[in-house]
Design brief:
By secondary structure, this protein is α+β, with helices and mostly antiparallel strands. It has two domains: 76 residues, Alpha-Beta Plaits (2-Layer Sandwich), CATH 3.30.70.260; 77 residues, Alpha-Beta Plaits (2-Layer Sandwich), CATH 3.30.70. The protein is 26% helix and 41% strand. A four-stranded antiparallel beta sheet has the order 2-3-1-4, with helices on one face. A hairpin with a 2-residue loop joins strand 2 and strand 3. The mean pLDDT is 91.
Length: 173
């Protein structure tokens, strides 16, 4: 098995997914690295960095029975890297607006043009069917100032999109 693998599982949300998948990996002798696990709609998604002495085929053989029993789709990719090799977010962008196609593309395009590296993006739709409100929270790293990023995004206000840029507080210790 190479340095790290990215294990991805997706399926209908239900109790026990994390427990069963991580137990299978532990039993196989794998170490777990960085992870993102979240419920989206009625589905649960796991993206998990896994390392160990096992070959990819052995790792898949260990996890596949659990995935099949729980109705999860599974995917495994060798990836370079390791732990603690990522940027720490320094800016948070909060977006609110009437739900419409293109909000994510509009916001992220402006951010990319200003060197903003998105590290995490979460979104949801609130309100009701007649008046849906799109809510998005983005954390990332950018060398530009808060004022520069806020000014770049201010043009979206003409489209009914409210954007707030703030520093990310990192508590250490």
């Amino acid at each position: 098995m190479p340095d790290w693998n990215m294990l991805t599982l997706v399926g209908a949300d239900r109790p026990g997914i994390v427990s069963r998948v991580t137990r299978a990996l532990y039993t196989c002798g794998c170490n777990l690295g960085e992870a993102s696990m979240i419920r989206l709609g009625g589905n649960f998604t796991i993206m998990l960095m896994v390392s160990g002495e096992r070959h990819c085929d052995e790792l898949m053989a260990a996890v596949r029975p659990v995935a099949e029993e729980l109705g999860l789709r599974i995917h495994l990719d060798p990836v370079p890297g390791g732990l603690h090799r990522h940027l720490v977010p320094n800016l948070q962008v909060r977006v609110f607006g009437a739900d419409r196609a293109g909000i994510v593309a509009d916001v992220t395009e402006i951010l990319a043009e200003h060197g903003f590296n998105i590290l995490e993006l979460e979104s949801d739709v609130a309100g009701d069917a007649q008046h849906p409100v799109y809510i998005m929270n983005i954390q990332g790293y950018c060398e530009r100032t808060i004022e520069e990023v806020q000014a770049a995004l201010s043009a979206l206000s003409t489209q009914g999109v409210s954007v707030d840029v703030a520093p990310v507080d990192i508590l250490i210790g």
